[in-house]
Specification:
406 residues, TIM Barrel, Arc Repressor Mutant, subunit A, 2 domains, 17 helices, 45% helix, binds iron/sulfur cluster
Length: 406
């Protein structure tokens, strides 16, 4: 089983972000401290509840995401990990990731304390190293903080460091993005996540873009950023193993690989989703509603049972995001159908246009295909959905959840 822990706090809100989190503001204030304390108490309660049901289950990975998990003091992270180990079978070689903002690691002691608390992988959200662009997207750190953070993490003994980066940002040019990648590679991370900016509805950046107050790079430049960026990273020893993820050999994120392979996962914290034994539920995003349900032990009362149809379509959407692709035999085993035969004309056209490849029984996207993955996945999804039982429950929801660009 995989465990995801959502930490719903940030210092300030970034202008592009649609994740669930509350801005605590700078400095310490009593209301924020109370809220964080209450969050930790509820998290421990939620953990104890699931221990009663799934206690002893093997846990291969733990991922602290958010929000900004590095706002939690290392001591708290250590307490939660210690409880996890006590209630479940947290395997010795478990991958334990914590997302950190660069400014949180300014004080070197915290990196070392997270390591001592049991975290063995840090994912540092640097986004870009350009201060003007960082300001424009509302990040509260500077490029220099990222260099310090990566250095502090290595000094603290982290042997597995990932950098989170973004391209297609307002004010960013192709040359500047490629230079940012070069500078990032000089920091010698083991893993790089490189996401294209999406203008999420309701965010400040989406409004500003709609009103013409910020301008994104032209589409052609964005394509070059993705294609040349990926080629540069591969040339520097980073395997392009998923549309937005690159890793040195052996450093692929095991937690995310687990999601894409369809392993069970337990989500803790407000807005976290869980899928266990074919049932899926999502915790309320609202703190009080989450707390009430955790107290009553009713977090999964509205769980949806995933049908074979829904699971198959989800497998299609997730595996095709990976460089390895979808094993056609797995599809046949689950659905009893031949995907290539059901989508023959479409697959043939995509193959002729170098968007997909079929090799050793796997269907996968080429790099050009990854660039237009949303369109490809949408088309394949529709063909596959039609070939299976029409109107399968959950199908449209899966489509909406799975479609996110490179
Ligand atoms: S720090 Fe991360 S979670 Fe928080 S607002 Fe920024 S992007 Fe969103």
């Amino acid at each position: 089983m995989l465990v995801y822990i959502h930490v719903p706090f940030c210092r300030t809100r970034c202008r592009y972000c649609a994740f669930h989190s509350t801005a605590l503001g700078r400095g310490v204030n009593p209301a924020s401290s109370r809220l964080v304390r209450d969050y930790v108490d509820t998290l421990l309660l939620e953990l104890a509840h699931w221990a009663d049901i799934h206690g002893g289950a093997e846990i291969q990975t733990v991922f602290w995401g958010g929000g900004t998990p590095s706002l939690l003091p290392p001591r708290i992270v250590g307490i939660v990990l210690e409880r996890l180990a006590r209630y479940f079978n947290l395997v010795g070689e478990a991958e334990i990731t914590l997302e950190a903002n660069p400014e949180s690691l300014r004080a070197r002691a915290w990196a070392a304390e997270y390591r001592a608390a049991g975290v063995n992988r840090l994912s540092i959200g640097i986004q870009t190293l350009d201060d003007t662009v960082l300001r424009m997207i509302g990040r509260s750190h500077k490029g220099g903080d990222s260099l310090h953070a990566a250095f502090a993490a290595r000094e603290a003994g982290f042997a597995n460091i990932s950098l989170d980066m973004m391209w297609g940002l307002p004010g960013q040019g192709v040359r500047q993005w490629l230079q940012t990648l070069k500078d990032a590679v000089r920091m010698e991370p083991d893993h790089i996540s490189s996401y294209g900016l999406t203008l999420e509805p309701g965010t400040a950046l989406e409004r500003a873009s709609g009103e013409g107050r910020v301008v994104l790079p032209p589409e052609r430049d964005q394509s070059i950023m993705f294609m040349e960026g990926a080629a540069f990273l591969e040339a520097n020893g980073y395997l392009h193993y998923e549309i937005s993820n690159f890793a040195r050999m052996g450093f692929q994120c095991r937690h995310n690989l687990g999601y894409w392979e369809g392993q069970d996962y337990l989500g803790l914290g407000p807005s976290a989703t869980s899928t266990i034994a074919g049932r899926r539920w999502t915790n309320p995003a609202d703190h009080k509603a989450w707390k009430d349900k955790a107290r009553l032990g009713s977090l999964d009362e509205n769980a949806e049972a995933l049908t074979v149809h829904a699971r198959a379509l989800e497998m299609l959407m997730l595996r095709l995001r990976t460089a390895r692709g979808l094993r056609l035999k797995d599809w046949r085993n689950i659905t009893g159908r031949n995907l290539l035969a059901d989508s023959r004309k479409l697959v043939q056209a995509m193959h002729e246009n170098d968007l997909v490849r079929i090799r050793h029984g796997y269907l996968s996207l080429t790099r050009s295909g990854m660039l237009v993955s949303n369109t490809i996945l949408l088309n394949l999804f529709e063909r596959a959905d039609a070939a299976l039982t029409p109107d399968g429950p959950g199908a449209s929801k899966i489509l909406a959840e799975s479609l996110c660009g490179p």
